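Justification of computing resources. Each target in the renewal requires a structure prediction run like the one illustrated here; the chain below, 245 residues long, is used simply to show the kind of job we budget for.
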Amino acid sequence: MGSYVGVDWASRGWLVVETDGHEWTARMHPSIHSVWVTHRDANSILVDIPIGLPEDRRRECDREAKEFLGSERARSVFWTPCRAAVEADTYDQAAEANEACRGDGLSSQAWGLIPRIQEVDRLLRDDENARETILESHPEVCFTTFNEGNPLNSKHGRAGEDERVACLEQVDDSVRETFESFVSAYIEDQPPWARRIGTSNRDDLLDAMALALTAKLGDTNFETLPDDPPVDQKDLPLQIVYTDM
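Resulting structure tokens:
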């Protein structure tokens, strides 16, 4: 049957959830290269990080994802910085590059993710096989699709967590038990010296599970935002993939 992987950045490492349709695993990785070496035989790997980088305008996939989520959840999608900003050495240089490319400022959230964007970009530019397997998705788009097109409330807090568990449980009835076992094994019980999922990353765990389920349901045949995605100057697709429920 193969395996399906969801990847989310979780403060101190890449949080990776894998499912084969029956069993689930979760693990923290120090780099995206480690993720790829471990899961290179997966059917698909969906990662919540921008892949195709714009040159002189905002990405259409970001715009369509914001529209798809509606005004209440649109802020969960940030405008991807242009390639010149991603390749800059300092925040000031990156902000100036983004302004020069398309007249945009650079959010602190985008700046904080630039090292992760660089990681993924370099891997995909160097490895053709990785380009075929690692695709960009967005957890909020996945959750909204699973919830019949209705965006969920904020993921922060126990009420938001419960809502998201219930949403994923409609797709796979093993989700609640799996999530609780992951929390017990990797958040509550592991010794502090272990590479563990932090207590503040419970929502990242659910995001990675949503991405893994999307990978499984799409099974390499995904819907995309936009429908006919362009590629950037490095031939990487400017797209967000999801599965149509």
